TrEMBL record:
This is SMI1/KNR4 family protein. It comes from the Bacteria. It comes from Clostridium drakei. The lineage of its organism: Bacteria, Bacillati, Bacillota, Clostridia, Eubacteriales. SUPFAM superfamilies: SMI1/KNR4-like.
């Protein structure tokens, strides 16, 4: 399993959250069929994202510190209609997640499908994380684990 260490960290974080909030984060682990459907729809989709969905699952962690979607969506589907005019960037993106501040986590659709972020205070540009999904999500989980 690629995400073994991260899964253990999330179990610990979820346990702490449940003790503090009387509620545990729920994530949907994707079946092989669901993964294959995503592969058909997006032939270039990163394998590390698909592995995350099949090992950890779609959903939130860390009191909704980060939410990973199972289905990719157009960025226009995430933002309120009144903000769409500000989404003025050249990159083609598909959103895979968000955080509580409303920051959109996206794949920049090119030959590498690297991770990008769209911040609420600058909807006109995509900040390139210059990381694969695996590197990005491991960094987020590690950061949260250290805080807990």
């Amino acid at each position: 399993m690629r995400y073994e260490r991260e899964l253990e960290a999330l179990k610990y974080i979820d346990q702490l959250d449940a003790e503090m909030n009387s509620r545990q984060e729920e994530r949907e682990v994707y079946s092989k069929k669901q993964i294959e459907e995503l592969r058909k729809e997006y032939p270039q989709i990163p394998e590390d994202y698909l592995e995350y969905l099949s090992e950890i699952g779609a959903g939130s962690f860390g009191k909704e510190f980060c939410t990973i979607f199972g289905d990719l969506c157009e960025i226009e589907d995430f933002y309120d209609e009144s903000l769409l005019e500000f989404l003025d960037f050249e990159e083609k993106v598909l959103q895979f997640g968000c955080d509580p501040s409303g920051k959109a986590l996206v794949f920049i659709i090119d030959e590498n499908w690297e991770v990008g972020e769209i911040w609420d205070d600058d909807l006109g540009s995509v900040s390139r994380a210059e990381k694969t999904f695996y590197d990005y999500i491991c960094e987020v989980i590690e950061c949260l684990y250290k805080v807990q």
